[in-house]
Amino acid sequence: MKTYQLQSRLFFLFFSLLCVQIAHANEVITPLPVNADYDKAKAAVGKVLFFDPILSRDRSISCSSCHNLTSGGGDNRNVSIGIDGLKGNIQSPTVLNARYNFRQFWNGRAETLLEQASGPIHNPMEMGLNSQEVEKRINASQKYQKLFSNYHHGYISYAMILEAIVEFEKALVTPNSKFDRYLRGEIQLSTQEYTGYQTFKSLGCITCHNGINIGGNSFQKMGMIKPYIHTNNYPDLYSVTQKDYHKNVFKVPTLRNIALSAPYFHDASAKTLKEAITIMSNLNLGYTISEQQIKDLLAFLHTLTGETPVILN
Ligand code: HEC
Ligand code: HEC
Predict the structure, then answer these.
(1) How many Å apart are CA 16 and CA 276, to the nearest integer?
(2) CA-to-CA distance for 305 and 174, rounded, in angstroms?
(3) How many CB atoms lie within 10 A of CB 180?
């Protein structure tokens, strides 16, 4: 091959890579699927389990006690409250669209929803029940014998119980938000919503909050530019890795349905979305933003509220 041919090929290769990059950069946020896949029979059982306090030691707390599916998927408290009124040490994140997070928990210590689900059940501060006791209770229940019999006969193992919960969680997708419909070219945003989206991009919010969950796909520092001061010890990534540079590093939370899930941040230190936006731009980007920019961003963030998952109707 002649040198100029090689050069032009290399140039072409470089150019194509650049195009892919540019195309990708235009679509760093992608819409949620309208019909997300999940096993309907198993999810139906998981739905009953999710709302059932049978999974907690004193039969007082269910998953839904801390994850209110009709108001944002968290619990709107500063820290969640488990059995015996015990207070946890971190804000309850949303379970809506959690299937699209690259890891689970604020510090990502669970790789999958399946791995995550055992956490709260065993946690002495949350539901406080071991797997043998869970199996015993579910197998002794006529209701669950009947529910599981739609796809399984015989002994119900702990693994099958978790599996049903996970299938239900996979159904907790909130499609057709105004912004998703805009991304699919079905509708226009209002001028203010559109300006807010441009602001979200130009300030750099989108460098951390992107992808299908507008977050949930990387670990980042809270206080990237200016240090975030807090007094308590929270389970940040440092608590998992013991590496100094992981102090105050968390999984970037999803911004889907964000208007519904106050208070904000792992420690619930921002009570309103306005406060959260102001702190974010200041500490993570180094900007003091104007009232107008705040209003525009708020208008954009409100377009991220999706529909109630079909399984809840
Ligand atoms: C007592 C309150 C409480 C109960 C009960 C509870 N959770 Fe949670 N949940 C939390 C808190 C708090 C976190 C965040 C903990 C952390 O990150 O360290 C969380 C995190 C999660 C996450 C991870 C979400 C994310 O974005 O990282 C999922 C999924 C979840 N819970 C599902 C469940 C399921 C399923 C149940 C029932 C089996 C359940 N939870 C019961 C409070 C609770
Ligand atoms: C360097 C990465 C990064 C940038 C840039 C960034 N964020 Fe965040 N964002 C995070 C992290 C990490 C958290 C979780 C912080 C915590 O809980 O302590 C977060 C939390 C939030 C929350 C609260 C979510 C919740 O569920 O509590 C909102 C709202 C938010 N960001 C909006 C924005 C906006 C708007 C911008 C642009 C002005 C922005 N973020 C820029 C990483 C980033």
Answers:
(1) 39
(2) 8
(3) 24
CA of 297 to the centre of ligand 1 (A): 28
Is residue 303 within 6 Å of ligand 1 at its C-beta? no
In order of 50, 157, 213, the CA distances from 253 in angstroms are 22, 33, 8
User: pLDDT tens for residues 21-71?
Assistant: 443 345 599 999 999 999 999 999 999 999 999 999 999 999 999 999 988
| 90 alpha carbon, closest ligand | 1
The ligand whose atoms approach the alpha carbon of 89 most closely is: 1
Q: What is the pLDDT of residues 79-128, one digit of tens each?
A: 888 888 888 889 999 999 999 999 999 999 999 999 999 999 999 889 99
Q: Which residue has the tokens 């079905």?
A: 186
- Angle in degrees, CA 217, 220, 225, rounded to 5: 145
| Cβ–Cβ < 8 Å for 226, 286 | yes
Rounded to whole angstroms, the Cα distance separating 159 from 195 reads 48
User: How far is the first Cα of the chain from the last one, in angstroms, to the nearest whole number?
Assistant: 65
Is residue 193 within 8 Å of residue 78, measured between CB atoms?
A: no
